[in-house]
Specification:
With about 475 residues, the protein is an alpha/beta fold. It is built from 15 helices and eleven strands. The protein has an eight-stranded mixed sheet, with helices on both faces. Helix 9 packs across helix 11. The longest helix has 23 residues. The N and C termini lie close together (about 10 Å).
Length: about 475
Amino acid sequence: MHTQTLAELSAGLAAGDFSSVELTRHYLERVGQHNSLNAFITVTADQALDSAAAADAARASGAAGPLTGIPLAHKDIFCTSGVLTSCGSKILSNFVSPYDATVVSRLADAGMVMIGKTNMDEFAMGSSNETSWYGPCLNPWDTTRVPGGSSGGSASAVAARLVPVATGTDTGGSIRQPAALTGITGIKPTYGRVSRYGMIAFASSLDQGGILSATAEDAAMVLTAMAGFDRRDSTSVDAPVPDYRSGLEADISGLKIGVPGQFFSAGLDPAVEQVVRNALDVYVGMGAQLVEVELPNLDLSVPTYYVVAPAEASSNLSRFDGVRFGYRSESAKNLHELYCKSRGEGFGAEVKRRIMTGTYALSAGYYDAYYLKAQKVRQLIADDFRAAFDKVDVIMGPTAPTVAFGIGDKADDPITMYLNDIYTIAANLAGLPGMSVPCGMAGGLPAGLQIIAGHFAEELLLKVAHHYQRETDWHRRIPEGFGA
């Protein structure tokens, strides 16, 4: 069953080939069998089987939808009522949320069955899934390598077929980059399309929830259920949500694809470049037209991001002080020590680095020089995309400059690590939707094609990705040892 896509599993449930309880048990067994990947922080087996039984009952009564009874995993950044929500951090290692995030409740309302919470970089800060307090997650294609971050647990779980689909979040590429490095499909919707209520904040103006799945069709089915306005999120946009799956087959001949020269600059692995260019040729074969476009400020996206994101993180993470919830140091002798020791012992090195960077950028005398200037550059980057989309329908290029790298290879060099998101960050700064689809193998490891569209053009994005997956089979590849 695990080699089937979500859409195929949905059809199997509808046809009565298997029940949701049988399906859920199958995936729970796989999670236990491949525990060495460290893809999960929490497994909710009893709760999952109860939900699966409820899904089977709903189906028997004629109340089932296309997602009823389908297992999924949530990134441990989403609050889940009565279940540990750690955000990959020691400081929340004892936090059991009293409520569900909107994403969680909407997918539960659609009948989906949560089987656990996935590993992640601490507070979503990382590009490798090595900063988790629960230890690094492994890439099923090569377990000596990272799956990418920060949604690496979700990516590893889907790539190894431990779940058919998982949620993730993307602040600077944290859905698309791990999707590329593990050979699966990942979509980051437009900022405001998916509610952030109950999603533990890293950088509020950049964070966006999304999906990791085997195919664009699967992502379309899940996004239809999880997207939409939420009055509890002030940045949620009140715009109609189409049935994304129904638009997948529409014709794409005549599609204009923007190819920025900046996406193929120094630092891009030649083998990755070749498979991306091969993917562009597939689109040309389907009647699309390649158009050269310019994103002249793209090279400023990484430094801009690493001013804006840490500044917002330093503010968002100030709530974790050992007083109201989460980890509290047992050796503090007064209130000042309680704050200092709880945060000093509870946060990891990467989180501390970004808090200090952000606090510095926001401090008196430096706000104008750093934070305000970064926001102005951010606008220039958004303007570049706006000008490009006057000429083309979508923009394409590599998702990441290399394939998955070895665990620990970049751990001591944060700048090199930050550059791994060089092609994905700009879409977050501009609030645009982006996808990564598997497009080939480079040196025996998967590489991803990134597709970026205009605001709220998820329907176009998914359609374009779906057509590519009709022409190729890269999304069907499963790492050796995980298919049987």
